[in-house]
Design brief:
Layout (H helix, E strand, L loop, with lengths): L8 H8 L3 H8 L8 H14 L5 H8 L4 E6 L5 H16 L3 E6 L4 H13 L4 E4 L5 H9 L5 E4 L7 E5 L1 H14 L5 E6 L8 H12 L9 E4 L3 H12 L7 E4 L2 H13 L9 E6 L12 E4 L2 H17 L8 E4 L2 E3 L11
Helix pairs in contact: 1-2, 1-3, 5-12, 6-7, 8-9, 10-11
């Protein structure tokens, strides 16, 4: 046999002493039953010859590639990683492979990846856009590729969102209930995602508590622990720094806590910190992080469920936005402010 030449079903059939049709029934688990004895002979021949199905040919015959594209802003962010893990497991259970793509929050790369997935003829796409959702959706919708968009609420689109405004309210209300009045906020740069509503919830609660909004207490940050560290340094440099800080996510909170300790202060003795997302590491930090929780894994599972229903055309599934609830998880990083 020539090098790199793929073994055929005919060769498997000859080795097992059966017809090519029987080999197909064994490989495809049907549609006709095959006796256990014959199955064993076919599987032994497959093992001996190193046969594997030609997925390209199968996809052409079925007009599906059994592949789902997943476009994420960042592949190292623990939230996105958990979403990817949950979605991949749910898709794999149904025989679908997930093609993972990271954009680095580059809108040009987002559009290019959408075009690439279209060229790869994936069956569906799940995505978290950074800036312009339509730039991702347009090339996919042009060829009727089913899509599910996370962390957004878009018209005529299947979306899964988080109740982020309520989450911002919960975090801020918790700090207010402890007696804090100068509450800092480390928020992410403007984006199309609904997570910007965490800032709105923060403002809501300050207004309800009759506390004037102080723009000096709000720092706009990039992603990552280092960005959280430098943003916290800005707040600490104020002539009247905050006694508590609410961060856009747990990753920023990690950097903020490090900056507080490096300044010779302690959490929560000197400054309380609240994160967001309840990532796996948040309960292992010192101190354990108070945070706003939503089910990250559930977002991945729901996204897989919807995209597979769309791909498999299981009934008429109207486009809608599903909003996942949030809750406050109180741990050790928050306490009443010191009294002087």
């Amino acid at each position: 046999m020539a090098k790199n030449q793929q073994v055929t079903r005919k060769e498997v059939a000859e080795r097992a002493g059966v017809s090519v049709a029987v080999v197909s029934y064994v490989v495809n688990n049907g549609p006709r039953p095959v006796s256990p004895e014959t199955q064993a002979k076919v599987k032994a021949a497959i093992e001996e010859l190193g046969y594997y199905p030609n997925e390209l040919a199968r996809s052409l015959s079925r007009k599906q590639t059994a592949t789902i594209g997943l476009i994420l802003p960042n592949l190292t962010n623990p939230v996105f990683a958990e979403i990817a893990d949950s979605l991949e497991k749910a898709c794999a259970a149904e025989g679908y492979m997930v093609m993972l793509c990271g954009t680095g929050r580059d809108p040009h790369k987002e559009k290019k990846l959408a075009q690439l997935l279209r060229a790869k003829q994936v069956d569906g796409v799940v995505t978290i856009p950074s800036e312009s959702p339509q730039e991702i959706l347009k090339p996919l919708q042009q060829t009727n590729i089913p899509t599910v968009v996370l962390e957004h609420d878009l018209p005529n689109t299947h979306c899964i969102a988080i109740d982020d405004r309520h989450g911002g309210r919960l975090a801020t209300q918790h700090l207010l209930s402890l007696g804090h009045r100068r509450i800092g906020l480390i928020k992410r740069e403007p984006a199309s995602a609904l997570s910007t509503l965490r800032f709105v919830g923060y403002c809501d609660m300050l207004e309800e508590a009759n506390i004037p909004f102080d723009p000096a207490l709000v720092v706009e940050s990039k992603a990552g622990q280092a960005a959280g560290y430098s943003s916290m340094q800005q707040l600490l440099a104020l002539s009247n720094p905050p006694t508590a800080v609410f961060t856009h996510n747990d990753v920023l909170a990690m950097g903020a806590i490090r900056a507080i300790y490096d300044a010779g202060l302690a959490v929560p003795h000197d400054i309380s910190v609240v994160g967001y997302d309840d990532t796996v590491s948040s309960s292992y930090l010192n101190p354990r992080l108070t945070t706003v929780k939503f089910s990250i894994a559930e977002m991945g599972r729901r996204a897989a469920q919807i995209i597979l229903e769309l791909v498999q055309k299981q009934g008429d599934l109207p486009a809608q936005t599903i909003t996942l609830p949030v809750e406050l998880v109180v741990r050790d990083s928050t306490a009443p402010p010191q009294k002087f």
